[in-house]
Amino acid sequence: MSIGGALKRGLTGAIAPAIFLSLVGYFGWNAVRGDHGLRSYAKREELLKEVQADLARAEADRDAWARRVAGLRSDHLDRDTLEERARAMLNLADPADIVVPYAPKDRLSP
Q1: What is the DSSP string of 45-81?
Q2: What is the pLDDT of residue 18?
Q3: In sequence order, what are the beta bridge partners of 72?
């Protein structure tokens, strides 16, 4: 038996495990760092939490505005909301109100 034949048999026997280990390494790397891996999953979960918080704030803001608008509907007028809007539109103040003057460049928008 020659050294070349033994070397050939050894290399032939090592090809299958090498291919298997390289495939396991490739899929393992993609499972952790790939586009759909564990790191991407964690980033998507964080983004989902941020977006859900933004949605909750937007819904709370929408509900607050819906309550204010409902107070101005003709079938049910809320006196406080109507008075607030009338004063804002007519630029009037109640004698009991405290008026804070501001410069023209700091004009508040209605």
Answers
A1: HHHHHHHHHHHHHHHHHHHHHHHHHHTEETTEE-HHH
A2: 92
A3: 77
